[in-house]
Amino acid sequence: MRLARRIIPCLDVDGARVVKGVNFVGLRDAGDPAELAARYNAEGADELVVLDIAASRDRRPTFLETIRRVAEQLAIPLTAGGGIRTLDDARAVVEAGADKVTVNTAAVERPELISELSQEFGTQAVVLAIDAKREGEHWDVRVRGGRDSAQLNALDWAWSGVAMGAGEILLTSMDKDGTQSGFDVALTSAISGQVSVPVIASGGAKRPEDFAKIFTAGLADAALAASIFHDGVQSIRELKDFLAAKNIEVRFPC
Amino acid sequence: MNVAIVDYGAGNVPSVERALRKLGATPERVRTPEALAGASTIVLPGQGHYAALIRALDERGMRVALVEALLHGKAFLGICLGLQALYQSSEEAPDLAGLGILQGKICALPDSVKLPHMGWNRLSVRRESRLLAGLTGDDYFYFAHTFAASAASGETVAACEYGVEFGAVVEVGRMCAVQFHPEKSGNSGAKLLENFLGMAV
User: What CATH code is assigned to B2-200?
Assistant: First the structure.
């Protein structure tokens, strides 16, 4: 199998700026989205995700403008999400330049949204984001930025989402997110080993070893991180050199 | 150079436009058979469901114009569904006839691998190709699809392997098609698009 494991930087955007925080609190400015997008595109990022963390109606035009500015910088795929509740919301994001859309809380509240998006754009364009938190022997789905329980088992929800047309799962561990203590191997392998679509692991990334582990033991098809790339703590090129040395298939731009 | 992009109301038109503009070309969206007939260089982009593309071409009366353009040897690049549409039919929508320029049927990739085939993969180049000039098996291209053409067809100039070997690049004269998305494939994709523009001159 020569399909490369993907490294995906994520831009959490509040209006026109990239922000970062720990466990969704204490947000700090982390730069201009278009500048970061250009940098990651040049450094060998395999995709880019842009999330509107404010996701409020009145800020929507600003977010769409941000997608346009980011898309202009990219020769790699762009996923956008945050606050997509309807087919029209998704159309606006796609028209602004996103190749895929990601849905989270709105899909939990109205699962048909997944099939509507999949029929309109194709399964390859629908990314179901699941925020999961360990509850005893299983993982609970969290919504509204991780604040509330959806009263759903994450594995069951992943299965349903795929059945309804999600082509990919963006799986964030609420236990690991913001901790920089490594990806959640148990969660990711449990979900990725059971669903038929690619899984993007998210939350907890810090060291190159964390990425190697999530691609091997964690069975992840892609790995997403934000702060470590924004801060320049981890260069994408060096990360890929490390993974290649571990015999993990990664793409080096020619 | 003007490049007509067939706009059937879905698909990856803006990113294709962006990629072509960066190479100095002038993309123009075409939505009618008349506009297509007047074009000398044509790109048929596509993503999503096979039926959406075929139905849209028929509803807009563009099927005949497209086939004529291909038979007249106009420079053509099909992307993703734009490759699949060249064949006779697809398992994704068995009742719909494809453009039928190429023999064969588009089939689902095996379920022994995760689907869609999503991400960056490499090619096995089978023979010399103008479209792939300067590109090798070391170049990665971005794929996002579940169905694919057989690698056995004689038009296949490069194959890709994912669960099974499938046709990734087709080239017959100036008719080209790729299963991946060159507009999303970094410098390698840009090189391929540049080669295509060179073939169109």
Answer: 3.40.50.880
